[in-house]
Structure formats: structure tokens, C-alpha cells
Design a protein that fits this description.
By secondary structure, the chain is of the alpha/beta class. Helix content is about 45%, strand content about 10%. The radius of gyration is 16 Å and the shape is globular.
Length: about 240
């Protein structure tokens, strides 16, 4: 697929650098400290627990479990793509409230560690956005797939009424063609095996486009976040209706 500006590869190769607190986040994950604050690129801290507890979560909630892409690093929270999705929901007259549970620098292992806490909220819909950091660190695609499956299994076990949507991500070709192909197959395979909906590529139409990214060339700007929200909404709206 051809895109203007930087290539998708150029945008994704820098995504790891977008999460300056990634190493600290991984250490916290390995220690099993799911509620420990993860350091964001801007030096602020976000607790996995406070990300949700700061908001009132009604029965009909749409929870985004994700990384800095979901958290909206570099943007006002009202302009991050989950907030844009909330406005689309409101415009459609649907009674759902979006909860942004994005944590900068998180790997799929971190998502596994957080999911039990998030499920206390009993979301109506859970959108899983994870894997970009795994791929950029060259971690085993089989491990990524297993971690996402663990998240799905936990949802099915502890909140069976929660509907799941999986957001796809791409890996870098510099790790080899086979790795890239293996990584790309993970998301549709998981969606098919678990009978859940798939957003093929979260950053479709945004990655590599200068005008849709912040100055770092990594994170979507306000216009880019709107495009990402459109990618999500194309899948989510049918589920909500």
C-alpha cells in the first residue's frame, strides 16, 4: 500500500522511542506490579489503576486497553482518538461511555497483567490495542499471540458478556520478511479463532503521513487521531448498534 511522506516503516520504527518509559514499564510488569505508575515520555506518570478509577464507569462502557497510541501521548486528552470515538457515539445517540485505559510503553505482557483489574469494570466492549512495542523489540511473535490470547481468555472467563474487538498492528521488515509475515498473521488469526471483530490496522491512513502526525513523526496529531477514530468507528459502530 502506497502512502505519502514517510513510509509506514519509518513511522513504526520510531514508535518504540515514543515510549520513553518503556523499560521502566517492562520492569514494573516483570515484577508483577500492575498498579505501579509507568513513566510517560513527557515525564508524567500514569497508574494503570488511576487510568480507570479517575472515571465513573457505567454498565455500558467501551474500554480501550492500549499503549501510548491509545493514551494519546502529546495530545490533549480530549483530542486522543478514544475521545473522538466518544463524540461519534454521542452523535449517534448511543448510550455508551468511553474509558481510555492506554498506558505508554506497555507490551502485551503488561496488558495481561492489567486485564483482571480492568475487568472489574465489566465493560460492554473491550478494544485491545497491543503488540507494537513487542514487534519493535523483536519479541517472539508466538509470545505476543499467546499474551493476546490470555487477555481474551480472561475476558471470556471473568466478564463473558463483554464484547471484544482486536486492533491490528504491523511489524518492521528490518527483522526479516518471515518475522513480518508471522506478525501480520497474528491478528486475523486471533480474531478468527476467537470469533471477535478485527480492526485490520489501527494506523491505516495515518502511519507515514507527515500531515497527520506530530513533529516526532510518530504519534498522530489531532487530524491523525480523527482518522484513527474513523478506523475504529467503522468496526465499533455496528457492534454498538
Amino acid at each position: 500500500m502506497v502512502r505519502t511522506g514517510r513510509t509506514i516503516v519509518g513511522a513504526l520504527v520510531l514508535l518504540l522511542g515514543a515510549c520513553a518509559g518503556a523499560d521502566k514499564a517492562d520492569k514494573a510488569d516483570k515484577a508483577g506490579k500492575a498498579d505501579k505508575a509507568d513513566t510517560l515520555e513527557d515525564g508524567s506518570a500514569l497508574s494503570a489503576s488511576s487510568a480507570l478509577s479517575a472515571q465513573s464507569t457505567p454498565v455500558h462502557s467501551v474500554v480501550f486497553l492500549g499503549t501510548s497510541l491509545t493514551a494519546g501521548l502529546g495530545l490533549d486528552p480530549d483530542n486522543a482518538f478514544p475521545a473522538v470515538v466518544q463524540r461519534k457515539i454521542d452523535s449517534a445517540g448511543l448510550k455508551y461511555t468511553v474509558v481510555n485505559a492506554g498506558v505508554s510503553g506497555e507490551s502485551s505482557a503488561g496488558a495481561v497483567r492489567r486485564i483482571d483489574w480492568i475487568l472489574r469494570q465489566r465493560p460492554a466492549v473491550l478494544i485491545i490495542e497491543t503488540g507494537a512495542n513487542d514487534g519493535l523489540r523483536g519479541q517472539d511473535p508466538d509470545s505476543l499471540q499467546a499474551n493476546i490470547q490470555r487477555v481474551i481468555d480472561q475476558v471470556r472467563r471473568h466478564s463473558p458478556t463483554t464484547r471484544i474487538i482486536l486492533a491490528g498492528m504491523e511489524a518492521l521488515p528490518n527483522l526479516g520478511a518471515e518475522y513480518t509475515r508471522h506478525f501480520r498473521r497474528i491478528y486475523p488469526a486471533l480474531a478468527a479463532a476467537n470469533h471477535i471483530q478485527l480492526i485490520p490496522f489501527l494506523l491505516d491512513g495515518v502511519a507515514g503521513v507527515d500531515s497527520l502526525n506530530q513533529q516526532d513523526g510518530i504519534h498522530p496529531n489531532e487530524a491523525g487521531a480523527r482518522v484513527v477514530a474513523d478506523n475504529v468507528w467503522r468496526v465499533l459502530r455496528a457492534d454498538l448498534k
